[in-house]
Write the structure tokens for this entry.
Amino acid sequence: MPTILAIETSTDACSVALYCSQDMLISRYQIMPRKHTELIFPMLDSVLHEAEITMDKVDALAFGRGPGAFTGVRIASAVIQGIALTDQLPILAVSSLATIAQGIYRRKKVSQVLVANDARMKEVYWGYFSLQAGIMQIEGEEQLSSPDKVPIPDGKIFLAGSGFRCYPEIFANRDIPLTYQDKEALPEAQDIIPIALSLWKKKEIINIADALPIYLRNNVVHNNLDNR
Amino acid sequence: MVIILGIESSCDETGVAIYHQKKGLLLDKVYSQTALHAEYGGVVPELASRDHIRKLSPLILQTLDETGIALSELSAIAYTTGPGLMGALMVGSSIAQALAWRLGIPALGIHHMEGHLMAAFLADSTLTYPFVALLISGGHTLLVDVKAWRSYYILGESLDDAVGEAFDKTAKLLGLAYPGGPLLAAKAMQGRAGVFTFPRPMVNRPGLDFSFSGLKTAVRTAWYSSSQSEQDLADIAYAFQQAVIDTLLIKCKRALQYTKYERLVLAGGVSANKKLRADLISWAKIQQVKVYYPEQALCTDNGAMIAYAGYLQYQQQQRQSSPFVIKPRWSLEDLSDVPFRD
């Protein structure tokens, strides 16, 4: 198995993880809005130091490619690009929504998760994930839509993400037990690792030029011009 | 051997360059986003950030490849910390900081306007301190007293539109495409002197500050009361450009009188304006002032000026990595060690 260094900065949380072996996963995680740049390199130094390895021993880099805060996803993507420039290391791009679902699986052992994150402008980023061989896989596609367009499937489904906190009307007419909700769930780099390992096995590896964020929201022009 | 990689991403130009202690500037690569923003009539910040992150790393690899410099040979990475667009600065800073972290070398955060100032030395090594600098671009209009390295004092600045902004906005109101500044200057070449006359803003007031927004209003009035023919357009463009140039020259003269310096450095994208250069040269002869202006590639935003400013900082033994914090708003005076006021 490869040694993988992972970064996730698409939300208010900043996290890094270093996977060395099945028995050795080291991670750092902190919720600190707008302080990602100050946290990221001390966190990277700290996981490498704890593992007693240098960057030369790292085989691949993984990052949370969004969707999420534009500046946040660009920090993860740009930092990974910058690190990869030296050795042209293989890169694994992991969905930030899938990472949340994977984290829910780690903590709650559930197999169906609907993730919806607040995307501002009265919209949410959302995706429906189900467990296959220990990995949370997207059903269909990740989407950006108004909260009322998010379908809540029948059966036992876990709801995760800030979208359910910001838009409680999404599931207002459904009786979802509190134990099947986590409205504060955020993506953590340690949960990137299992997904990154599966991408590695499938050889779904990208190079620096393709290590780019997935924004989902592409209509950004009028918004920006109006705000000037 | 000191070798610095420079990265610029503060607005709509992605720039990468390498400065070599012995060989000077090795390569200066700039990717311009102008076409991307043209259909919106101005720089769209989010689109700028998205383009920087697509272009910057490939441009770095290309620059290394074409110069034959290995990353392991670099002494430091210099990058623009500010001022500029937040998201755009963040892309350059993130890649620069990460590359420097991986290589175990300093990441030197550079003030974009200091880059423009120092570009004058890249263009002409005979330049010496002290000098007055006129920095004119789409985002800035500054008259600076440059006493020495990191001893910069702002003598005057625009209270409203920057010069380049005034050119672009005026071009827009005359119906020219974006970016209209250079088109307006081209139209002015066909214009006749004396047909229209516009005020020289703020020249009757003491001080060295500028104001260009009133000029726009004067142009609008003239344009709508004209027959709006091609010749009217050219004549108005001529009169507008001349009003701006005269204003800049009057303020430069005052700045030189005030500082008693004999050298004037012209920098920033608008300093590529041909009429401005021509007028400045004949004016400088009469005033007995030596004028320095970098070639066009070094006037507009580029990585070379950042690499060179980083080189100077490195040579001053300031080699600790800058904090990974961008500064979208950042005064040039903050770089000066000793506060200066009189």
